[in-house]
Amino acid sequence: MLEYFVLLPLMVVVFYYLYMAAVFPNFITYAGYAYFLILTLVFVILRERIKSNYDLESVTYWEKNSVLVDTMMWLYIIPGFALIIFALVYWFKGKEGRRYKQIIASVIGLILFFIYNYAIFELFLGYSR
Fold first, then answer.
1. pLDDT in tens, 45-96
2. Which residue in 62, 59, 72, 57 sits closest to 10, CA to CA?
3. CA nearest 67: which of 45, 46, 36, 90?
4. Residues in contact with 124: Cβ distance below 8 Å, sequence separation at least 6, in sequence order
5. Phi and psi for 19 in degrees, rounded to 5?
């Protein structure tokens, strides 16, 4: 179960952008929180079910695990990118002085979000038992 703690920084980044982008109505903010929480719970439950139903050395386990990890990675990346890009566009229309700091922080956050997401899902969770 400890292997799932690597998902916490990912959740913190997404929740931070949901919280800080004041352009989102409360409904969308809370729906975003619920989406990522439910997605994480479903991922943990399905991955644990695959672990318990298949031998960890079998080809079937690795195929099912790889498909699940790839699917969940894209379900995290696409809404996360949309959220960060939407916040980036909103901040681009903001005040002149703060705008460039927020844009640079968002672009760096977008790059790190992709790298961290890929590393977690493909390299860590995709190949762990």
1. 998 999 899 888 888 888 888 888 889 888 988 888 887 777 777 767 766 6
2. 72
3. 46
4. 3, 6
5. -75, -40
The b/e string for 40-60 (b: 16+ C-beta within 10 A; e otherwise) is beebeeebeebeeebeeeeee
What is the C-alpha separation between 126 and 117, in angstroms, rounded? 12
Tokens of 83: 């959220």
d(CA 111, CA 106): 9
- In one-letter notation, the amino acid at residue 20 is M
* Stated pTM of the model: 0.77
| Three-class HEC string of the chain | CHHHHHHHHHHHHHHHHHHHCCCCCHHHHHHHHHHHHHHHHHHHHHHHHHHHHCCCCCHHHHHHHHHHHHHHHHHHHHHHHHHHHHHHHHHHCCCHHHHHHHHHHHHHHHHHHHHHHHHHHHHHHCCCC
